[in-house]
Amino acid sequence: MTPDQPPFRDPQLSRAERVDDLLGRLTLDEKTALLHQYAPAVERLGVAAFRTGQEALHGVAWMGPATVFPQAVGLGATWNEDLVRRIGEAVSTEARAMRTRDDRVGLNVWAPTVNLLRHPWWGRNEEGYAEDPWLTAATAVAYTRGLRGDHPDVWRTAPVLKHWLAHNNETDRDTTSSSVRPRVLHEYDLRAFRAAVEAGAVAGVMPAYNLVNGRPNHVSPYLREHLRTWTGRELLVCSDAGAPSNLVDSEAYFDTHEEAAAAALRAGVDSFTDHGTDSAPTVARIRGALERGLIGEDDIDTAVRRQLTVRFSLGEFDPGLDPYADIDPASGWDTPEHRALAEEAAEQAVVLLKNDGLLPLAPGRRIAVVGLLADECKLDWYSGTLIHRATPLDGMRERFGTDRVTFAEGADRVRLRATEYGGWVAVPAPAGPAAARPERDAEGALDPALLAGRTDLPPLTGGADEADAAELALIDWGGGVLTLRAPDGRYLSVAEDGYVRAAADQPGGWVVQETFRFEEHRGGHLLLHLGTGRYVSVAADGLKVADRGEPFETVCTERGEEAVARAAAGADVVVVVAGNDPHINGRETEDRDTLALPGQQDRLWRAAHAANPRTVLALTSAYPYAVPDAHTTLPALLWTAHGGQAAGTALARILAGDVSPAGRLPQTWYAADTDLPGLLDYDIIGGRQTYLYFDGTPLYAFGHGLSYTSFDYDDLVVDPPGPLDATVRARVTVTNTGARASDEVVQLYVREAGPRPGSPHRRLIGHARIRLGAGASRTVGLTVPTAGLGHYDVAHGAWTVPAGTYVFEAAASSADIRCSVPVAVPGQAPRPRSVRKDGLAAADYDEQTGTALVDRTKTSGDAVTALDGSGQLLFRECDFGDGADTVSVEVAGEGSVEITLAGGGAVALVEVPQSGGGPYDYTTLHAETLHTEAPLTGVADLRLTLNGSVRLARVGFGG
Q: pLDDT-derived band of residue 145, with 50, 70 and 90 as boundaries?
C-alpha cells in the first residue's frame, strides 16, 4: 500500500477490515444512495457505479447474443450435478467475457431459481429445477459453484438465489399469502435454499413478491431467523423489482413508504430494486425513515457492508489480482466448448416417457416431422439472444438427410374478411430499409420489457380484393389464445401507435403484443388484441386497435390436421413435435389453469396417428402435460424442456439412437387436473401434493425415464447409520443388461417402515447419474447425512430423527423400486406434547381443515384463522400430566374457540367478543368452566374449532 492509498485498497488486509475502512469513509448520503439497485459512483474515493442483478438462469440474458442452454427445468431433468456445474462455469465465464465489451453486464447474477415445482400450473415452472427439495438443492449447489468459480478469494460471479419463499403462483402474486405450516417450511421450502447457502457459493437471496402466513416476504423474519444462521458470510438480500413499493401500494401492509422501507431494511433487505434506474424515490424514503427515527445509521451501515462485501469478493477493488480479469470474448464467449456443452445438456435433458419398440428410428426411413414446434427453437423471458439455432426439423434433416425428411407445421391457414366493409385483410410488403431490419434491437437491453414494437412497417389493410387477401397461419395455443403469422413469417403485432402490423419474429415481451382472441359477433368474430384489451378495427390508413371492433369472417383454406395427415401418410414414421410457447399460456405473470395439451395440438397428433400408426409424440414444453390418451394410443413419447440453441440437434440424435436417452422427470406428471389441489394450496402434506404425498396413480412418476437398454439392480447394502451429525452410506450394484451403452440415474429413497401420520410415502435422499457400457456393472456408493432421514417435530420445535426401522430403496424412479433393505436407525423416541407445561402454539398443528396461517405481528410470529367462518386444527398426543382444569386462549378478532378431545368429549368453549381492535390486538381469555365428558389427564389428541374471524395464537392449560 502506498502512503496515499487508503486501507480498503490494501489486499494484505482482511476483507472485513477493508470493507469497514471503506464504509467508514462514506458519508451518510453516499451510503444511502448505495442501497438502490443502481448504486452511483463515489468519485472522490474512486469507487465505481454498481448494479445488482444480471439475469443468468440458463445463460446470460437480456444482454444480447450468448450461449443458450436448456431451461432450468430441463437442467433439473438431467439429474447431473457435474454437468450443471460446468454450465454454471460457462455462463459465468461468458458474463465476464461480455462485460469486457459492455460494462452494463453485471457480475451479481440473479440465479438460480430454487422455488420447488410444487404445482405444475405455476407459470414459472420453467425456472425451477424440481418438485423435490433434495434434487433442487443438489442442482442449485452445482450451478452456484459453477457461477462462483473455484478461486478461494475472488468470485467469477456472485449468485443470488430466487425467490424467498414459498412462491409458486403468478395469479395475484403480490397480494396472495402462502399458508406454510412449520413442517412444510422446514421439510420442504427452506431445504431448497439451505444446502446452497451452506455450500458457500451463494452471495445472497431475493425475496419473492408474495406473502407467507400473511406477511410480505420482503419483511420476513425468516431472513434473520433462518437464512443468516446458515453461514458466517455476509449475504446480500436484493429486493424483487417494485416489491418495496408493493408493501404500501398493492399490499397496503404499511401506511407510508418510509415505514415500509424501514421495515424492509430492518428485516434484512440490503438492495432496493424499485423505480427502474431512478434511485430518487428509494433514497427519499430511506432518508425520511431516518428522520422519523424508524431506522438508525447503523441499519444503513449493515446493508451497505453486505453489498460492499460482495463487491470485494468480485475483485472490484483489486483489478491486478483478479484471476478472471483476462477473460475476453475470444476466450470465454461462444467457444467451441460452450457449444458442445449446450448440445450435451440438451441431450441429457431428454426424457423417454414411453417406447414400444419404435425408437430408436431404423436407418433409411422416410420421416415426417410435423407439429407447431417442429421448426421452432423457442426462447423464454430469461433467455439470451441465440447465436446458433437448431430446430427439430433442422436436426432431423442434418441427421437423416434432407431427402428423407418431410415437414408440415399443422397451423390452420386462414383469410380474414371485414364483413361490414366487404374487404379482405392484406399484408402490404415492406419497402426500403424496413424490409431487412431485424424485429427489435436485442443487442443488450437491461429491461427487455422496455423494447418497443416496430412502427416502420406498413399496417395491415382491410379493403383488399380477395385475390390479394393474405393467407395467415393461425395457431391456437390453448384457451382460445391465438397468434396469426403472415406469409413472410412475421407475427401480427401491435405497437404503441395501435396499428396492426406483421412485425414480430416471435411472440414476446413483458406484455405480449402478438396474441389475439376471437369473440363471436353477428355471425362473425371480433378480434380482441390481448396485449391492449382492445379490438381490431378497420381504419382508412390500416388495421388498428380501438374500443369498438369490426366483425371479421374467417375463411379457412386448409386445416392443419389435413397437412399433417398428408405428410404422415407419405412417411414410414412420424415425429409430432408439440408443446408450448414460453411467452404464452404459462409464464411469469400468468399461470395455467389446465394440464391439457392445447386442442389444436391434440388434434394434430391424432391426425398423424390416424394416417400412420408409427407416430412418435415429442413434447417440448416448460411444464408437464396430462396426455393419457396419447400414452395409451401412441407407441412412443418423449419430453424435453425448451433445450436452447442445440435442442433440435439433441432430439435428432436421441431419436436416431446416437445417444440413449437418460433424462428423468424432475416432477410428477399427473393424469388429470382433478389430481391437483388448488394452485394456492401450499400445504403439500394436507393437499397430498408431489410424489411425496400424492395418493393417486400418476401418468408418469417423479424420476421416471426410459432408456434404449435395460438395467438390473442388486446387492443394496446400507451401513448402520451413526449419530445425527454423521452420515449414512449405501451401495448398490447396477448392471447394464442390454446391448447399448447408456447413462442410468440411480435413485435412493427412504421411508419409515411404520409411517407416522402425515409422513411422506418415500423421500429422495441421494442419486447418481452413471455411464455403463453394454454388459458392464458398477457398484454405486451414495452418502447422505443421517439428519436427512428425519423430519421437523412440530410438537417440540426441532428437527429430529426418530428411532425406528427405515426402508432404503434403490430405484429407477419413485414408482420403480428395484431393491430395498430395512435398517434400524438409532434416534430419539417419540415424545408427546407437554401442553400442561408449554401450552400449544396454534401454528404447530398436526392437521388442519379450512384454516390459514396469518401473521401474529408485522415483525414475527404466526397465528391461525378460519378461511370461511369455521376451521379445525388437530394436535396429536397432548400430555396433560396429572390434569388440567383451566384453559386460556391468546386471540384477536371475534367469534369462538371450541376445544374438544379428538375421540369425543367437550373440553371448553371460549367466546371471543368483539373488541373493536385490529388484527394484531391480542388478548388472553380464560374459560370460566371446563366442559368435559372425560378427565383432561394423560395423553390425548385435541381438536380446536375456530369460528368467526378469530385469529388464534396460543392455547394454554392450567390446573
A: very high
3-state secondary structure of 265: helix
- pLDDT beyond 60 at 439: no
Amino acid in position 32? T
Q: Is 152 exposed, middle or buried (0-12, 13-18, 19+ CB in 10 A)?
A: exposed
Query: From CA 12, how far away is CA 835, in angstroms rounded?
Result: 56
Strand partners, 777: 735
> Dihedral sign, CA of 241, 244, 247, 250?
negative
Q: Say whether the peptide bond before residue 791 is cis (omega within 30 degrees of 0).
A: no
Residue with cell 396485449: 531
- 608, 505, 546, 47: which is closest to 316 by C-alpha? 47
pLDDT in tens, 11-49: 999 999 999 999 999 999 999 999 999 999 999 999 999
Cell of 624: 408437464
**Residue 328 DSSP symbol:** -
User: What SS3 state is found at 906?
Assistant: strand
Is-contact 130 668, C-beta < 8 A? no
**Torsion 163-166-169-170 (CA) sign:** negative
Q: What is the largest CA-CA distance in the chain?
A: 94
Please give the Cα distance from 526 to 514 (Å, whole number).
16
What's the start-to-end Cα distance of the chain, in Å? Answer: 71
* 390 Cβ contact partners less than 8 Å away, ≥ 6 residues apart: 377, 398, 645, 646, 647, 648, 649
Tell me the pLDDT tens digit for each residue of 560-596: 999 999 999 999 999 999 999 999 999 999 999 999 9
Q: What is the dihedral of CA 797, 803, 807, 811, to 10 degrees?
A: 40
The whole-angstrom separation of Cα 829 and Cα 847 is: 21
Distance CA 518, CA 535 (A): 10
Beta bridge partners of 367: 405, 573
- C-alpha span between 51 and 34 (Å, rounded): 10
CB 361, CB 620: distance < 8 Å: no
Burial string for 887-922 (b: 16+ CB within 10 Å, else e) reads: bbbbbbbbbbbbbbbeeeeebbbbebeeeeeebeeb
Dihedral of the alpha carbons of 934, 935, 940, 941, in degrees to the nearest 10: 50
Distance CA(14)–CA(609), nearest Å, equals 68
Instruction: Supply the Cα-derived Rg of the chain in whole angstroms.
Output: 30
Q: Tens digits of per-residue pLDDT, 900-916?
A: 998 888 889 999 998 88
Yes or no: say if 641 and 622 are a contact pair by the CB < 8 Å rule: yes
b/e per residue, 77-99, with b = 16+ CB within 10 A?
bbbbbebbbbbbbbbbbbbbbbb
Q: Are strands 204-207 and 236-237 parallel, antiparallel or unpaired?
A: parallel
Phi-psi region for residue 690, left (φ > 0), alpha (ψ -120 to 50) or beta?
left
User: Which one-letter amino acid corresponds to residue 918?
Assistant: G
- Three cell numbers written together for 673: 387436473
For the record, the C-alpha cell of 678 comes out as 388448488
Single-letter residue type at 722: G
User: What's residue 232's pLDDT?
Assistant: 95
Q: Sheet of 763-772: strands edge to edge?
A: 763-772, 742-752, 804-813, 816-825
Q: Identify whether the C-beta of residue 734 lies closer than 8 Å to the C-beta of residue 777.
A: yes
Phi then psi for residue 576, to 5 deg, are: -95, 120
C-alpha cell at 337: 466448448
Per-residue three-class SS string for 599-653: HHHHHHHHHHHHHCCCEEEEEECCCCCECHHHHHHCCEEEEECCCHHHHHHHHHH
Reading the block at residue 460, the C-alpha cell is 395491415
Name the DSSP class of 433: G
Report the C-alpha gap between 578 and 598 in whole angstroms: 9
Q: Which of 136, 162, 133 is nearest to 79 (CA)?
A: 136
Residues composing the chain: 959
Residues with a known catalytic role: 240
